[in-house]
Write a structure and sequence with these properties.
By secondary structure, this protein is mostly helical. It is built from three helices and no strands. α2 crosses α3. The termini are far apart.
Length: 111
């Protein structure tokens, strides 16, 4: 499961990263808003912009992790459904393991 989650997180991170491009108005608006928010605790505009980029990267990592957890839950759910279907398709054993009459003690014959 850990390998599955890591692979899916990498996939979702790459897919989400495709939509965050420099020059896009949504990305620029988020960068400016975040830079303005962290400017008071930064040493200048350059550091505020760098911290804003780090915050956006952290948001993307968190969102990719949440999406990978969702994929993990879906994998477990579909595995359970498949297991239940396979269990429902089982036939009765031809050896009658459920028959308790075969467990009666054998009478010893003394001659």
């Amino acid at each position: 499961m850990g390998h599955f989650l890591a692979a899916r997180e990498k996939l979702h991170s790459n897919l989400l990263g495709l939509h965050v491009t420099q020059g896009d108005w949504v990305t620029d608006a988020n960068l400016h808003a975040l830079a303005a928010g962290v400017y008071a605790k930064s040493y200048g505009a350059a550091e505020a912009s760098a911290r804003a980029v780090d915050l956006i990267a952290a948001r993307l990592r968190l969102q990719a992790y949440a999406l990978s957890l969702n994929d993990g839950f879906l994998l477990v759910a579909w595995s359970c459904v498949l297991g239940l279907l396979l269990t429902a398709l089982l036939r009765k054993s031809p050896l009658n393991y459920g028959d308790l009459s075969a467990l009666q003690p054998v009478k010893e014959m003394h001659s």
